[in-house]
Every structure is written in C-alpha cells, then in structure tokens.
Write a structure and sequence with these properties.
Distance between the termini: 35 Å
Strand order of the largest sheet: 14-13-12-11-7-10-9-8-15
CATH topology of the largest domain: Dihydrodipicolinate Reductase, domain 2
Mean pLDDT: 96
Number of domains: 2
Order of helices and strands: EHEHEHEHEHEHEHHHEEEEEEHEHHEH
CATH superfamily of the largest domain: Dihydrodipicolinate Reductase, domain 2
Shape: globular
Strand content: 15-25%
Helix content: 25-40%
Structural class: alpha/beta
Length: 388
C-alpha cells in the first residue's frame, strides 16, 4: 500500500474541516464521505469522492482503508467497532466515547486486531509546543514529584446561538453531557498526559445544569482531584464566563510550571522544597526560586492535520501516532467522574464502575431531558475560533 484511501463519516462542521485538508496529507487520498443529513453531505464537493448516507454502506464499499469518525459522540465507538470488524483502520474525533464503559468495550475490541490495524484519536493539542515542553520537563525530573495540578479552563465561552446550531447539542441523548464531554476532552487528556499518565484515584466536584444557558446539561464544573501519591488537583471550567481564563499550573518538589497567555514560566527552586522544609533553621524562610521564561516555540506544525498525517504514516510506515485511540479512555474517565460527582454531590473513586455511570446518564436524561428550550437554527460557525 502506497496510499491510504480515507473515508470521513460525519460531514458536519468538523467533518468538512477534515475533508478540506485530507488530500494534502502525504500518503492519503479522500475517497468517500458519509452523513445521514443529505444537506450536510452535499456541502462536501470534492472531485472523485463517493457519498453515502449509511456508514455501513461506506464501510462495505471497498473504497476505504481507513475512516475518520466525526459524528455526534454516541456514534464514535459503535462505528469504530464496526470498522475493526471489517479490517478498516480508525481515526476518531474526540471524545473517544460518552461513557467509560463504551470506551472499554471498544478498547477490548481493538486489542483483538491491534497487530494489523491502527486506531488513533484526534488529540491535536498534544502537538502544541508548550504542552510538549511541559511534558518533557516533567519526564526529565525537573519538577521532582508532582504535588499539585490546577487548571482553570473557563475560556470556552459559548452563545445561545452555538447551542441552537444543532438539535443534538447540549442534550443527554445527543451528546451525553455538556462542557465536560464537548469542550474539555482536550484539557482532560492533557491533564493526565502532561504529567506522564498520572491519574487521580478520587474526584469530588460541583456542576451546574444550564447555569448560563437554557440547556439540559452542565455548562459549569469545578472539581478536586486526589492522586495516589498525595498530590491534589483542581479543574474549573465553564462555557458562560467572560473574560475566560486559561491557566495551567503544575507544582512539584522542585518548583512550578505555569502556562498562561501564550507563555510558559518555570519557577525553579534552588533546593528541593521538602529538603528546604526539613533543614532550614528559620521559621519564615522560603526557598530561593528563579523565574525562567521557558522557550518552547518550534518550527514543527501543530493541529488536526498533524494528527492525521501521523495516523497515515503509522499505517504506511509503522511510525508512532500522536495519540492511540485507547488512550482516549483516560481523560474520558476523569471527565465521567467529574460529571457524576458534580451532579450527585458525592465523591467518585477511580477506576469507575462503568455500569453505574451508564445508569447515571440514563437518570440524568430522564430528570433533565427536554429542558433545552433553544430551537434549532442556522448559526454562523467558524471552527477556527473553537481551537485553542
């Protein structure tokens, strides 16, 4: 194989975005697209591309070696499993799934075909230079043992027009949640990826249903995370706060990394905090620190196309992907725990009981379903403004 024949399932905003660059990915050729909405399908007008209204027909057409899934959330895993069963590689948009149970089932299905198929997920934020630099510094031991992770991610402001742009948006049956499952999968992935896969053991949260929008799912959440090593985490997000904040702090025994306003600052302690604490004879002394403006910019490209290129290269050359699809379960489980804790007001331990979370989603749909009062209407959607 010298070309990967790509199909795109779901030609709404994100699907069209991927379609527009696909033929510029080295080693890829777009051969087919699919959407149940004929109007959305007709907005893709690329010569030589076959159109389907049923994804099963696309998978059975013999026209594709791999598919990029850009459908509403609940379809990501079922389509992926159907593709695996037909010997087709999969690149999925985020989130991997709505529930950790569905993600686990999909990961189990992939393990059976891992030796011959590739499964990737669209975590393009892993290509951003500042996050790569933070991960490298932590992996190199520059921070020492992690003691605190705090992310204020309230820069996801959304208008009523946004929520009215699709009937599935901001509904339990359509999306399976709100800000945590739609806007925050990238943050939640990075929350565990940057510190080398560090996962919390318990999450306690407070979330609000439709606090700033007439919707039936959460548009705000604040969470406290407890880690096995004693570290503590905080995660705060909202789609109704302006001006929003994007502030990530990771503290360790040797200092603190701060990412904010396009900068990365390393507050480096001359001596480890724990050692200074033990040995200083002074009551009110503080460790000496240096403020370092860490250079992180590079000439490496970033974004969706980079993830897709790495996926195609993995198929053709066996090189690593940006993110394997199975890794989507990690940030997803953190988000599931935040949502469940936030709306039940009870702590949630990880690993989660997947069946219990599925019952929780059903309960939320029964309790709050139908509270979205926004009628579906055409909205001006510039996807580039949603990437950060």
């Amino acid at each position: 194989m010298n070309k990967v024949r790509m199909g795109i399932i779901g030609t709404g905003g994100m699907g069209r975005h991927h379609a527009n660059y696909m033929n510029s990915v080295e080693g890829a050729v777009l051969t087919a697209v699919c959407d149940i909405d004929r109007a959305a399908l007709d907005k893709v007008s690329i010569e030589g591309v076959r159109k389907f209204e049923r994804y099963e027909d696309l998978l059975d057409s013999g026209l594709v070696d791999a598919v990029l899934i850009a459908t509403p959330h609940y379809f990501h895993c079922p389509i992926a499993r159907d593709a695996f069963a037909r010997g087709i590689h999969v690149l999925s948009e985020k989130p991997q799934a709505v529930s950790i149970n569905d993600a686990r089932r999909t990961n189990e299905a992939y393990e059976k075909v891992r030796n011959r198929l590739k499964y990737g997920i669209m975590f393009q934020c892993r290509t951003e230079a500042r996050y790569i630099k933070m991960r490298q510094l932590i992996a190199d031991g520059e921070l020492g043992e992690i003691t605190r992770i705090t992310w204020i991610a309230t820069n996801w402001f959304r208008t009523h027009a946004y929520y009215a742009s699709g009937g599935w948006r901001a509904t339990w049956k359509g999306e399976g949640g709100g800000v945590l499952i739609n806007q925050c999968p990238h943050n939640l992935d990075l929350l565990q990826w940057i510190p080398g896969g560090l996962m919390p053991s318990r999450v306690t949260a407070v979330a609000a249903i439709g606090k700033t929008h007439p919707i039936e799912v959460e548009d705000e959440c604040s969470a406290i995370l407890e880690y096995p090593n004693g570290a503590i985490g905080h995660f705060i997000t909202s789609t109704g706060e302006a001006p929003g904040t994007d502030l990530l702090e990771i503290c360790g025994d040797r200092g603190k990394l701060t990412a904010r306003d396009g900068k990365l600052i390393f507050s480096r302690c001359r001596q480890s905090v724990s050692e200074f604490n033990r040995t200083s004879p002074e009551s009110f002394a503080k460790p000496e620190t240096w403020e370092i403006d860490v250079p992180f910019r590079s000439n490496r490209p970033e974004g969706h196309k980079v993830v897709t290129q790495a996926f195609v290269d993995a198929i053709l050359k066996g090189t690593p992907m940006i993110a394997e699809g199975v890794e989507g379960a990690r940030g997803l489980e953190i988000g599931n725990a935040m949502l469940m804790s936030g709306l039940t007001r009870k702590p949630v331990d990880l690993p989660m009981d997947g069946a219990e979370f599925d019952r929780f989603i059903e309960d939320m749909a029964a309790k709050y379903g139908g509270r979205k009062t926004l009628g579906v209407r055409e909205a001006v959607v510039d996807l580039s403004k949603s990437f950060h």
